[in-house]
Amino acid sequence: MEAQATATVKEALAALYHHPDDSIRTAADRWLQEFQHTLDAWQVADSLLHDESSNLETLIFCSQTLRSKVQRDFEELPSGAFRSLQDSLYVLLKKFNKGPPKVRTQICIAIAALAVHVPVEDWGAGGIVNWLSDEMKAHPEFITGFLELLIVLPQETSSYKIAARPERRRQFESDLSASANVAISLLTACMGIDQLKEQVLEGFSSWLRFCHGISASELASHSLVHMALSSLNSDQFLEAAVNVTSELIHVTVSHGSGTTAEQMPLIQILVSHIMGLKEQLKDPSKDEEDVKAIARLYADMGESYVDLIAKAGSDDSIQIVNALLEVTSHLEFDIYSMTFNFWHRLKRNLIRRESYVSYGSEAAIEAERNRRLQIFRPKFETLVSLVSSRVEYPEDYHTFSEEDRRDFRHVRYAVSDVLLDATDVLGGDLTLTVLSTKLAQAYGSCNNEQNPKWQPVEAALFCIQAIAKSVSIEEREILPQVMALLPCLPHHEQLLQTVCSTIGSFSKWIDAAPAELSILPPLVDVLNKGMSTSEDTAAAASMAFKYICEDCRRKFSGSLDGLFQIYHIAISGVGGYKVSSEDSLHLVEALSVVITTLPPESARTALELICQPVINPLQELIQQGDQVLQQVPARQLTVHIDRLSSIFSNVKHPEVVAEAVYRYWPTLKSIFDHRAWDTRTMESVCRSCKFAVRTCGRAMAMTIGAMLEEIQTLYQQHKQSCFLYLSSEVIKIFGSDPSCAEYLTSLIQILFSHTVQLLRTIQDFTARPDIADDCYLLASRCIRYCPNLFVPTEMFQRLIDCAMAGITIQHREACKSILSFLSDVFDLPNSSDGGNYREFINTIVLQRGATLTRIMIAALTGALPSGRLEEVSYVLLSLSRAFGENMLNWARESINLIPPQALTDAERLRFLNIISDAASGSSLHTVTDRFGEISDVCRRNKTVQDLVQSALRPHDLTFTVVPQQLS
To answer: In this protein, which residues make up the domain named Importin N-terminal (predicted)?
Structure first.
């Protein structure tokens, strides 16, 4: 059998690497991946690695296979197999001591994974590090392989590819910490071998986080540290030396490393050597990767010592900040952006009160804050000048690929964040002053007749608009000049786009500007120009128009005719505007918020005017007959309906909007009746109705009955999920209104009765996640707003049964809605008005508790992704608090189903203790963390996870008896 499997592996590898047919290669790759999960893979991989005739492709595949088997499938082996596996891996380590390197690395990782799995005593006295020490001394000819294993050991402690239990992983970390001195001694002994220097540095970097027992003063004088720091000036070993130095920096600030005074001997020597690299940053002959490594070191130093830098404010501190400014001045984004986190942290230290609490009195705190700000403000001014030039459009931007353009946008977003950090230190007005100097210089170059350049002006404006929210609305020195400049700038597309965005960003300032400045009319002209230049400028202009109307709405209330003219041109699509249908929604919203400022009678007239260009096209389609309405593309309807949604959402005159909804209901009803099969149209029209309900509230009473009747009828026929989310909004507004009880009772009964027919099994839930999501959002709304109409009904019980079938749906939002509904059910009796439902809920849950608990435990242990851990934990917490001892019994039954191969007796007991503690008041955070550890144990590899799930069988709701072989 083994010989046949070995031959098949060789054939598959040959096909994978050499067969000309893509389909054959794909099939071979699939077979090899499946083979790696089999028991045979252990023996075949081991055998081929020992086989002298195996080629490189075979060796690489088999070393990867053996490594992954040790990592994830170690529990497949019999209990006594450890020693033979250890012996085999040891022989292989020596065999591949001189290469191939890829194979040797995989063998080292496999040995490290084996060490994580087994107790320290299995390696002999002192564990694997002492074993390795003995082997290195006894067989120096294999030093290369032994040294790589020494490097890999600490790295693998954080690898979650290794399917080890959490307590075993913690114990392994503890064992390594206890062996750190031995490891450091081994590395020190290898220092004198020149060809091993890079490996020694790499090993030292790996082991530093386990060197808790070595003091800072010892490290400061340690030969390995001096070797690393001296290697910073070596091109050959720079990368490895930087890694060591970064780790040493982290050691000095790590939790439990001692006081700053205790770490100072090491800090001083590190800073001294790092600062000595400053000239290399500017050396044009230096390789870019080396410059990146040095820049990373400066960034690490700045971020780690930011509190010391800010607090001291000394010449030495300023020298470090100046060095970081040198890095920030580099032209490559990958290099200068490394400092951005330092500037953010320095900003936080300077402005947060927590940085000054040790100074006691408010006067002392204020004095110290002012002292620090006075020292560092000039540096942030320099920072603003540096980064503001990084956002200029390149001359060849028009040739950029979409990926390059995306990268350029990323640079701009990053620079915007740095500018906002700077404004927190400097204040918006001072930052604006710095940027206005840049704008003035750029405007001069823009007017250069021989070589006019718009890019610097655009860059300065981009930076100014980025800090707009931080600039005082009382600013009167610079912004009036900027606003006066905007209409005078050339209408280059990218520049005009930024000009429009700048106008929108300063909408609040424009509203507060003195009337005598007469700023608004020329800016509106600029926006008009933007809307007719290109789609991109139109998008920026329409967004800016929305902001201007929101914040300057009262200035527009006397000039509605001009606004309506702009609106009608944009909506009609004629007149030269290049506003897309999506961007036109900004103009709809803009006019809607202006209408909100009008008195009711004027608002009524204005609302009619804004709705007519939206309603008329819909009515024209309806008048062409049922067949046309049914066949027209959804887009021709939704473009108008979405505009109606924006109007209903933003005109805050409930009675006026309610009248409009009543007036237009026949139009909406026709669309409901003839397009109910069309998901896209129904989602659009339901969204419009939802916003109407939200805005009008109970003022919409004259339409709500007809709307609910329509929803009930159409949902029975077409099962569109949007009818459910529209109903959720209705329940929220009208749920507590006694006059609507009859309507709502009928609505709840009909919607839920038809939904539970659709969702009988987990397969049904998976096929209709939108229905599941909106159904249980509606159910939760019913519990919160009208429990009296919902909880005492048979439909409530059926929805709980239905939820149990769908808990393990993989769709994130649907799953969260179901879990939220269940926790709402369990929490209801303990709410202020929920006592009336306690007996009813108790009866339902007590009948289902054992099955429900089993499904929830299955969800926790692998049936749902680990990302749902908090939601699942909250349901278990709620169930535990509501049903105490019963819940503990249900949990015990379920946990006992899990076979001992997956959970030990101690782990079962720990699992039960978590549930017991949850019942007696543990916080959600604590419970989630503790459940997370049990969840990891049950998911530690696919075999265990499958074993747990086959025992709990979350999809089998009739399963109650544990099979004999698993008991």
So the answer is: 28-79
Is the Cβ–Cβ distance between 951 and 897 less than 8 Å? Answer: yes
What's the CA gap between 245 and 232, in Å, rounded?
Answer: 9
Cβ neighbourhood burial of 811 (10 Å; 0-12, 13-18, 19+)? middle
Token pair in block for residue 166: 């959490």
Instruction: Report yes or no: 133 and 188 within 8 Å, Cβ to Cβ.
Output: no
**What is the distance between the alpha carbons of residues 166 and 467, in angstroms, rounded to a whole number?**
47
State the residue for tokens 């007959």.
625
Note whether 375 and 318 are within 8 A (CB).
Answer: yes
Helices and strands, counts by H and E, the chain: 51, 0
pLDDT tens digits, one per residue of 679-714? 999 999 999 999 999 999 999 989 999 999 999 999
Task: List C-alpha distances in Å: 893 to 578, 848, 884.
Answer: 67, 13, 15
In 3-state terms the chain splits into helix, strand, coil percentages (rounded to 5) of 80, 0, 20
Q: How far is residue 198's CA from residue 211's CA, in Å, rounded to a whole number? A: 20
Q: Return the closest-CA partner of residue 218 out of 276, 274, 258.
A: 258
Buried b (16+ CB within 10 A) or exposed e, 258-293: eeeeebebbbebbbebbeebeebbeeeeeeeebbbb
Name the residue with tokens 């065999």.
Answer: 95
Tell which residue, 843, 844, 845, has the closest CA to residue 853: 845
Q: Which amino acid type is present at position 885?
A: E
* Phi, psi values for residue 963, rounded to 5°: -60, 145
Ramachandran sector of residue 619 (left: φ over 0; alpha: ψ -120 to 50; beta: rest): alpha
Let me know: does 334 contact 397? Beta carbons within 8 Å: no
Q: What distance, in Å, lies between the first and last C-alpha atoms of the chain?
A: 33
pLDDT digit string, tens, across residues 51-76: 999 999 999 999 999 999 999 999 88
CA separation for the pair 202, 108 (Å, rounded): 15
Count other C-beta atoms under 10 Å from residue 806's C-beta.
Answer: 26
Q: What is the DSSP code (8-state) at residue 863? A: I
Residues 6+ apart with CB under 8 A from 486: 499, 502, 503, 522, 523, 526
Distance CA 595, CA 497 (A): 27
Residues of 50-89 as b/e, b for ≥16 C-beta within 10 angstroms?
A: eeeebeeebbbbbbbbbbbbbbbbbeebeeeebeebbebb
**Percent over 90 (pLDDT), the chain:** 81
Q: How far apart are CA 67 and CA 114, in angstroms?
A: 9
Residue 955 burial (CB < 10 Å; 0-12/13-18/19+)? Answer: middle
CA atoms within 13 A on the CB side of 760: 3
Show Cβ contacts of residue 901 under 8 Å, excluding neighbours closer than 6 positions: 75, 944, 947
Q: What is the DSSP letter of 393?
A: P
- The Cα 192–Cα 140 span in angstroms is 14
Alpha carbon distance 350, 311 (integer Å)? 9
Q: What DSSP string runs through 414-477?
A: HHHHHHHHHHHHH-HHHHHHHHHHHHHHHHHHHT-SSS---HHHHHHHHHHHHTGGGS-TT--S
Most confident listed range (111-120, 482-491, 813-822): 813-822
Return the sign of the alpha-carbon dihedral for residues 789, 793, 797, 798: negative
In Å, what is the CA distance from 786 to each residue of 745, 818, 820, 825?
9, 18, 17, 13
325, 383 in Cβ contact below 8 A?
Answer: yes
